[in-house]
Amino acid sequence: MSKEVKSAYYGSFFHAPVYGEFEYLEDALIEVDGDGVIVRVVTGDDPCKSDLLEAYRNRGMLVELGEGRFGLPGFVDIHVHAPQWPQAALALDEPLYLWLEQRTFPLESKFSDMEFARRVYGDLVDALLARGSTTTVYLGSAHLESSIELAAICAEKGQRALVGKTVMDDPAANPEYYRDASPAQAVGDTATLIKEVEAIGRASKQGIWPVITPRFIPSCTDEVLRGLGDLAASTGAYVQTHCNEGQWEHDVVLERFGKTDPYALRDFGLVNERTIMAHCPYVTEKEGEMFAELGVAIAHCPMANSYFSSAVAPVQRFRKQGIHVGLGTDISGGYSPSMYENIRQAVLVSRLLETGVNAMLPPDERGGLGEGTRVSIVESFWLATTGGAEALGLPTGTFEPGRAFDMQVVDTKRPDCDLTGFGVFDAPIDRLARILYLSTPDNVRKVYAQGRLVCDKDAR
Ligand code: GUN
Ligand code: FE
User: From the CB of residue 309, how many other CB atoms can be counted at a distance below 10 Å?
Assistant: First the structure.
């Protein structure tokens, strides 16, 4: 049954429905219904196109992207610590445990203050939308109230979001001023968050979902991990956590359970097809097989890999193993709120994984994994769009019928960042690469989520 078209968008679009490939839809027309869902894509050479264009123009339903502008799918950022936004760019030369103790925990503890939380979260959601991220997976602070408020802010601003309240209850691992009071309170708060955020989601057009969010094993007691696993089974809610991020975490978990993160989390009931595992550079082939079997998604955070893992996640192996992989900024384990920046970094760190980094050692001792580890710019674009959508099981990421109309309009002719290429290297792949590598936030002019205009810099 065809749905009624309420608006139509005319211009040239890039998207990547298939890993490793991209499509350039030149002079195409995208028809969108009243729910913000794509009804049909009329390609540039379709004989009906000019009649349709005229009809939509006459009825005031046509939006034309304009010359030098291109439509890209809204990005899907699957790992963001919302309360760490004021910390972005700070102390990234410290190891993870010190960064957490000295900066992150004191900062996150401030989100008991609702006024402060509203100010920071409102600014963050605006900053992400302004950079083209129409879907974001958030970890909130350990506070229930401000985490629910974050979901409400996303709903109001039109961003599709998954929102969790971070659980960290172990008195031996977390400061007294910032931790859950008990396993029962942490599980109870998470159950309340699930109900409240589901209600916010039901009232939104674009969708908002709750996420069960144990910070990582070292900050949680066995009891809370078991309780959250039971909650995952009884509610079917999404789950997110940090997994095998660094050597320190790896060793702590192995010492405590005699097994590594993936198996420990599985045995607590926290590994299923709704689980998002952040980072994962230390995930072995065998652990990866288990993830693929259980339908887990990995949030690849290339910046945080460099800062806190001192290792690079083997994205191409994960993909070959059949694991869902999306991209995350990891604000503020990565300093940038921009998925453009992370698309670039995913390519960059994969080059280091290929060859290894210490040129003083013989080639076979440098730690490089050899050919086949490189991520191309087109693959990275897929990770930031279709990959993220697949990871979450949500219909976004491409311009295909049945998907949400989530689009960012990139102007390649901005005065301070001309991406037109000056008439040379003008093939679609060259245009796309320039957009992905060189865009600044200023080049992103308009952003639509579920058919709603959620950011409009032209109107400023
Ligand atoms: N592991 C536990 N907490 C955190 C966090 O806030 N950021 C990162 N990158 N890793 C973590
Ligand atoms: Fe993180």
Answer: 23
